[in-house]
Design goal:
About 10% of the residues are buried. This protein is α+β, with helices and mostly antiparallel strands. About 40% of the residues lie in helices and about 20% in strands. The protein is built from five helices and four strands. The radius of gyration is 16 Å and the shape is globular. The chain has a single domain, classed as 2-Layer Sandwich (Alpha-Beta Plaits), CATH 3.30.70.100. The protein has a four-stranded antiparallel beta sheet with strand order 2-3-1-4, with no helix packed on it.
Length: about 120
């Protein structure tokens, strides 16, 4: 399962937000990995739009597993000051509906997913 979500970082805190994500705590990285988050990336625009993308077997289960970790509670408490909306940042994500995926459409049309030589 691929998941894409959006949120909003306060425009006056973008530089600090980037710095914090350049050196995420090793314990947090391990918790994400162990909770089923794969190929997880965050993208940030100049106006504070935050887009996240990840792969997981079950998004709800992955979120619940993270919510049970002590490190996530500490991380979210520290990160909350960077977000435009109040509350726990990882509970404020708006999950987007996927409307196109190249490889799925290629397969559906019987086409190879890699270029032919």
């Amino acid at each position: 399962m691929r998941v894409c979500f959006v949120s909003r970082v306060r425009p006056d805190r973008l530089a600090e937000y980037r710095e914090r994500h350049a050196a995420v705590w090793p314990e947090m990285l391990e918790a994400l990995r162990d909770s089923g988050w794969r190929d997880y990336s965050l993208y940030l625009s100049a106006d504070g739009l935050l887009v996240g993308h990840l792969h997981t077997e079950d998004y709800a289960a992955a979120q619940e597993a993270m919510a049970r970790t002590a490190v996530n509670a500490r991380w979210q408490a520290e990160m909350s000051e960077y977000f435009a909306d109040d509350g726990n940042p990882d509970e404020g994500f708006t999950v987007l509906e996927e409307v196109f995926h190249l490889e799925h459409q290629l397969r559906a049309n019987g086409l190879p997913t890699t270029p032919s030589a």
